[in-house]
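Problem statement: downstream parser choked on a complex file, so we are re-checking the raw output for the iron/sulfur cluster run. The parser issue turned out to be on our end (a line-ending mismatch), but while we're here, posting the original submission so the record is complete.
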Amino acid sequence: MKQYHVSIYRHDPSVEGSGRYVDYTLSTDARLKVLDALDAVSKEYDTDIAYRASCLMGRCGSCAVMLNGRALLACQAQVEPGNSRLEPLRGYLVVRDLLVDRTPHERVIDAARIHLDDSGFARPTGFTYGKDLYALTLCTDCLVCQASCPARNEIPAQFAGPAVMTQLARYARDPRDQGARPTTALVEGLHSCTSCMTCSEVCPRGIDVFGQAIVALRKGAVGSRLPGPKVQDDMTEMFRETGLAFPKSGPLLVEEMAEAGPKQGDVGVFLGCMFQTRHKDDGRALVKVLRDAGHTPVVPEGLVCCGGPLLWTGHEEEARQAAATNVKILNDAGVGTVVTACAGCGLAWRKEYPRLLEGTGLSPQFTVLDVSKMLDARESPQASAGSERLAYFLPCHIRSQGAADDARRAAEWSITRSGRTYVEVDFPECCGGMAASADPQLAARLAAKVIAAAEENSIDAIVTSCPFCVENLARGSRRARSKVRVTHLLGV
Ligand code: SF4
Ligand code: SF4
Ligand code: FES
């Protein structure tokens, strides 16, 4: 029989300091959902664990808990045999055991008047739901996204969280609604979202919370000419003027390479803004990695920002222009593969371009890969164990591409090959790098947590594969007066 060892957080509010984990063991051949395990423990141990459930089919949203640190629905998620840990939702006061107090969330919904406001409006006849509005109405208010959101967990008083944004976006999309939803979203901290996309990954109802709620509200704010963070407005202006979203000092890397580089090859290199300007050494290293792997990389001129930072801050039209320009140039280059070393660029290409290119008649005639895929394809190096300890920090935008395993393997490969010791560290999920342009204090707080985790594990250097993470973590390390260095995977 399979053994399930479940450690459950128990807390009796009438007894001060009673919070503790209690271990229970179940022996069964059946496959158990979390709720099955809770029911079985309650019965077999004759104990009164407090938890909520109602529909038992993922529709009411009442049964959300944390399983091994991940928020999910107890009636849907499986418990695996072996050890597991069940806790109440992160970021809420515990009423008892696995029950949390939902009142703060409901107060925000009430105070921000997030309900249909059709006062004085003649209802349109034949009203039908569009695709996005329909998707948003599927939200059950389960709070799984809230408990998973790094921004909401860090600054709940300033950022109301993704579930609140989902409700605001739902009414913003409703043609009957008269509320000023983007304005309310700004008041509720819309720009403090770090664009990590965790909410979209965890939503049990399959809502793309980041795209359909956060980005839609940001786009609404831009369309309504509401003031945005200055750095982001400057970024968009710079894109209109130069094609890049970040300032350049001196020649772009592509200009430096123009003379020496081949005009034709099998792999296209997409440098994006960062490797063209602030991280040129990593850009050069990317080209070298491809050459060393036996490819003939081409770096075409005229490529612009990937458009990701523009789209995710609400500037969809500019993002569409960027996508069309880049696809046209790389199609003309005749390459079969395009490689990027920026997590954000890769995500924009793979997740956002199909939608941005709709109606343009353009589609990429090549596959886009992160550089980790190219490193991973190569032979395993001999294991070595130098005294320097390096750990890989997984960027959110690599995770959102579904490329986490490739990236971790590539990091282990590069670190081991360089004669240093690869160490697994359970880092916080988001470093806050993408929030730096709108909420630098939040970005600093999240980076400080990553640096603290590195210090606790006696790490000499953090390796990552996103230039935004590199910059934000390096700032975090300097602020903490830490000796932990931060480098891109290409710099190992
Ligand atoms: S994208 Fe990340 S920070 Fe933004 S709302 Fe979703 S989970 Fe929170
Ligand atoms: S958006 Fe999804 S995860 Fe968030 S509260 Fe709604 S249903 Fe739950
Ligand atoms: S019991 Fe209704 S969603 Fe789980």
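For whoever reads this later: The pocket of FE2/S2 (inorganic) cluster (ligand 3) is lined by residues 53-56, 58-63, 73, 75 (CB under 6 Å).
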